[in-house]
């Protein structure tokens, strides 16, 4: 099963880090917040880098 990252829109400050680290996974939605649009758009390690790099810990693996 593919692990899917989840962005909490109430926590995201729209810094753009995850979008630039994993452009195939995250994009900004119409509200200007990051969201996952394709969990298979990067390797798990690349997504983990985005999770670790988020300055406000807005991204987590969905369970
Ligand atoms: S790295 Fe975190 S704060 Fe920055 S856009 Fe992504 S989810 Fe939002």
From TrEMBL:
PROSITE patterns: 4FE4S_FER_1 (PS00198), 4FE4S_FER_2 (PS51379). It comes from the Bacteria. Residues 3-31 form the 4Fe-4S ferredoxin-type domain. Its cofactor is [4Fe-4S] cluster. Pfam families: Fer4_13 (PF13370). Transmembrane segments: none annotated. Keywords: 4Fe-4S, Electron transport, Iron, Iron-sulfur, Metal-binding, Transport. The keyword Cell membrane does not apply. This is Ferredoxin. The gene is fd.
């Amino acid at each position: 099963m593919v692990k899917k990252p989840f962005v909490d829109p109430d926590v995201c400050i729209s810094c753009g880090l995850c979008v630039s680290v994993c452009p195939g996974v995250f994009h900004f939605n119409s509200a200007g917040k990051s969201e996952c649009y394709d969990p298979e758009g990067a390797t798990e390690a690349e997504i983990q880098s985005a999770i670790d790099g988020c300055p406000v810990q807005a991204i987590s693996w969905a369970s």
